[in-house]
Amino acid sequence: MILPALPAEDPNDRYGVAALTRAWLDEQRSKHTRRAYENDLRVYLGWCQVEGLNPLTARPTDGGRYRSQMPDTTAPRTVARRMASVSSWYRYLIANGACDLNPLAAVRRPFIDREETVTVGLSTDEVKAILRACDRAAERAVSSSPHRYLLAMRDRTVLRFLAAMGMRRSEIVGLDLSALGANRGYRTIRYLGKGAKSRERALPAHLLHALDEYLVLRAAVAGDTVALFVTLSPTGVPGRLDADNITAGLRRFATQAGVLSANRITPHSFRHAFATNAREMGVALEDVQDAMGHADPRTTRAYDRARRQLHREPALRLGEMYEDN
Length: 325
What we know:
This protein is mainly alpha-helical. It folds into two domains: 17-95, Tyrosine recombinase, N-terminal domain (DNA polymerase, domain 1); 124-311, hpI Integrase, Chain A. The chain contains 13 helices and five strands. It has helices at 17-26, 31-51, 60-68, 76-95, 124-140, 146-165, 169-173, 205-221, 243-256, 267-280, 285-292, 297-303, 314-319; strands at residues 180-183, 186-192, 198-202, 230-232, 238-240. A hairpin with a 2-residue loop joins strand 1 (180-183) and strand 2. The termini are far apart.
């Protein structure tokens, strides 16, 4: 691993900074976290290199300068994440005797409003319109080649996983065929959620209808491919669906459905809609939290777009108790 502003790697030193940095990244449970941590560390070490600063002897004043010299256009969440990533790296080095001080430990981080989100929201009608657009595309593909029909039915099923289950796109593309199962009379899906936590959830009927139709085509075209959701090369060789393909397909169907924010919505928009709709239907906060795999209920609340609407004011319901007095 070649990183700026650090000593050259000694392959025989198991406690050298490069070896420890690899170990630190390997200990992160999610590949997305590993990638984010490595990118954030490169940004910081690049800054150290420009400053002529040895990161292993940096002091809090250097950490403060790094914080203040980030461009004004850098979002507060990004600033906070970068500082958290680099602090985690320093803590690991300190724990292994490769460094004495974390220069970012005492640096004030930007305030992050947990209720704020940049994710574009979707109304229930917009979600339904997108699903209908995807259904129409699948109907048109019936008369096309088996390969095109398979991909159309795959997209139809994937969008239902987004809408009905509120799953992350990384969780969906990581699904294998073996993830499908049954438990206590329900057909279920097993997957690794954020933090590598194993999850098992029941699948609703309207999703199962699309899934079963897709599985028939998948067996005929993709054979014994491990991945549940497949893509096909120009020559018809099956492989695992890529996360970016989900976003591109979602925006294509949103455009066809006439959704105004079509070019900005993401799979996470469906996740927000899942939380909002579940809470609007009276599903308990803790059940929505468990379904979404959130460790903190405040995170779940931030996904609930309707939490401040007046019709959910507790006083209105409690007031009904006193109407006869």
